[in-house]
Amino acid sequence: MIRTSQRKPFRATLTVPGDKSISHRSIMFGAIANGITEVEGFLPGADCLSTIRCFGQLGVEIERLSETSVRVHGRGFAGLAEPVYPLDVGNSGTTIRLMLGILSGVPIFSTLIGDESIARRPMKRVVEPLRKMGARIDGRQDGRFTPLSVRGGRLQGLTYESPIASAQVKSCLLLAGLNAEGYTIVREPYQSRNHTECMLPAFGVELETQGAEVKIKGGQELTGTRVRVPGDISSAAFVLAAALMVPGSQVTVEQVGLNPTRTGILDAFRMMGAEVQVEVTDHWCNEPVGNVTIACEELRGVEIKGELIPRLIDEIPILAVVATQARGRTVIKDAQELKVKETDRIATTAQELRKLGAIIEETEDGMIIEGGTQLTGGSCHSHGDHRIGMAMAIAGFAASGEVVVEGAEAIDVSFPGFARLISQL
Length: 425
Ligand code: S3P
What we know:
Elements: E1 2-4, E2 11-14, H1 20-32, E3 33-40, H2 46-57, E4 61-64, E5 69-75, E6 87-88, H3 93-104, E7 109-113, H4 116-120, H5 124-132, E8 136-139, H6 140-143, E9 145-151, E10 155-156, E11 159-161, H7 167-177, E12 180-181, E13 183-187, H8 195-199, E14 207-210, E15 213-217, E16 222-223, E17 226-228, H9 233-245, E18 250-257, H10 264-271, E19 275-284, E20 287-295, E21 303-304, H11 316-323, E22 329-332, H12 345-354, E23 360-363, E24 366-370, E25 378-381, H13 386-395, E26 403-406, H14 418-423
Parallel strand pairs: 2-18, 3-16, 3-17, 6-7, 10-12, 11-13, 21-22, 25-26
Antiparallel strand pairs: 1-26, 3-5, 4-5, 7-9, 8-9, 13-15, 14-15, 18-20, 19-20, 22-24, 23-24
Helix pairs in contact: 1-2, 1-3, 3-7, 5-7, 9-11, 9-13, 11-12, 11-13, 12-13
Bound molecules: shikimate-3-phosphate.
């Protein structure tokens, strides 16, 4: 359980735990590479630990040198062993979808399961194109949902027009494409996060990208490398938002990932009138890294839609919280994907924010939030969704009474140490 209440203006400089998307990929790519991959700044959150556990079951030796440093002893795709027990991905959509791509092209049998939330999340989006590549996958409701089983084998390259902008779909197919005959091309309606495209070349893989299209040639091998993981901009978003909830505050987050496919939340905060300064100081595995400083006196409502949505998809719950404090109305459109995240985030964001007096309308593809509301104290629930739990805790920073967040243990999925960190603000 987390309790938060109204804050006085504060100033803080801090770092946040490692990027979840990059941490997952560092383990997966390290596992299918030849040789050793050293990972620093790894996120020791529940989701990424699920990825480590699953690859351990596939016979990959993975050493935890410290909380945040990991050594992966990769032996190539061919080194993956048939697992004796089902692979349990826990709450992690990235683990299951990317692993399906890897497992489809390796001649072993495996079964994938996860928690209650994973059991509701759509898998057809990857199962269907993988089957077109020749993958043999079966599962509940003809492979729409877990449990899923994969009998890996030979794959054919595929040209796929994805109906959704999803990095999990894109990455799954690119990983399958690495083992397929010929070329695999994935086109998206808008470009989704491109960590796979940035990181694979660090492992020696060649690929071509052009706008929202990626092309990869089959039969390439990966070579182990060193991965430094930047702070997660999706985690930083909660502390940046905290500063916006308390006018007169200023927060700097250092060594955070600034990949442009992820920084939509900074653009949205700027559109709302926040002063956002960004300084890129480095590139790690082709990923820009640097510092973000935010401050604001007064926010205004905005319209968020189109190509911006995949660039801030995970930040919409906290964006909705901030929008309650803006002058005027905020409209979020084109965000149907929210319905199939860890929870239906249109429903859970609206339901929980209303408990604190927010005026928020759910729509088919997003929500409409009335600004200028005085939030009240109240008792909220994470619904087992880390980002809903954190968003509600930050809402307390501008509430007239105490906000209690139940189910706060879910926050460990992506942001271990969140409660301690915000208590220091
Ligand atoms: C992720 C992609 C996004 C995001 C998720 C992590 C990834 O999902 O919401 O938290 O690491 O590739 P989709 O690709 O399904 O939109």
